[in-house]
Design goal:
about 210 residues, alpha/beta, six-stranded mixed β-sheet, 9 helices, 6 strands
Length: about 210
């Protein structure tokens, strides 16, 4: 049975124009770090042109302006590269449902989706299970509780690198509790990927 130490994880984060892709909000930045056996083995990063305006309230949160993204690649160019980067890995993130919701929705708009067998793990779920006594499970608070230095947040790569540091600590804690088989790990900390109807029927030929 596969051990979590032998599993590749892709920790990822998106910054967006708002909270709901179904209401027209879009990704403006995406970052991912691939880790295996406690080590970073690859990185992926891009600003993304959302092909719509960037509201001031979004810029207040992530400091990403329209000027920064107007010459960036669009989602249809970047997100297929993200699928390729993930490969056969398990994806992970803090409150990962939010990021997956955007990623999967935008993929559906271009007739793509994550591989059916791509599992997803939530470090928020891990934190609540492994550290039930914490009064707050937000990423920055959790990181400080685990002794991880917090510098910049609310930019995709900074958040990913912070999440990686937290994830590796939480994985050690899971290991200490003898949660080592990937099947058990996913049963405890996995989340379902959202499913959106594809805009095209050409998915099978795109892999």
């Amino acid at each position: 049975m596969m051990n979590i130490k032998l599993t590749e994880f892709v920790v990822f984060d998106v910054e967006t124009t708002g909270l709901s892709p179904a209401d027209g909000d879009r990704i403006v930045e995406i970052a991912a770090v691939k880790v295996k056996d406690g080590k970073t083995i690859d990185k992926f990063y891009s600003l993304v042109n959302p092909q719509r305006s960037v509201p001031p309230q979004a810029t207040q949160v992530n400091n990403i302006t329209e000027d920064m993204v107007k010459t960036a690649p669009v989602a249809s160019d970047i997100l297929p590269q993200m699928i390729h980067f993930i490969g056969g890995a398990c994806v992970a993130g803090h409150n990962v449902r939010f990021d997956l919701n955007f990623l999967c929705y935008e993929l559906s708009l271009i007739g793509r989706r994550l591989h059916d067998q791509t599992p997803a793990v939530d470090t928020l779920k891990m934190s609540r299970d492994l550290l039930p006594y914490l009064s707050n499970h937000k990423l920055a608070y959790l990181a400080r509780s685990l002794g991880v230095v917090v510098d910049q947040t609310h930019r995709a790569m900074a958040d990913v690198e912070l999440t990686v540091a937290v994830f590796l600590r939480l994985m050690e804690m899971a290991g200490d509790k003898d949660i080592q088989k990937i099947s058990v790990f996913l049963d405890l900390f996995g989340v379902e990927k959202p499913s959106f109807k594809l805009n095209q029927k050409s998915q099978a030929s795109l892999f």
